[in-house]
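#onboarding

Welcome to the new folks! Below is a worked example of what a typical request in this channel looks like: someone posts a single protein sequence, and someone else replies with the predicted structure as tokens. Don't worry about understanding the tokens yet, we'll cover that in week two.

Example request:
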Amino acid sequence: MTTSQAPQQTTNDWHWVMTVQTSDGRINTRTAVITVPDGFTRAQAFDYVFKQFKEDFGSPLTVLCFDLQPNRL
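Example response:
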């Protein structure tokens, strides 16, 4: 009798930077590292990060900068 194991899902660390401007002119920049599963898209990462800003500042927001890079040299 053999047992099958579920395939292991690997993750990747990504460093992001985002700067937004609120409708009243406030500018906020944040940076962090997120760990995401294989198959996670750049669009999903953007949405994940942008949601954090919307929770803190509301809408509308203008994204002035978004950068997403592998967190390795």
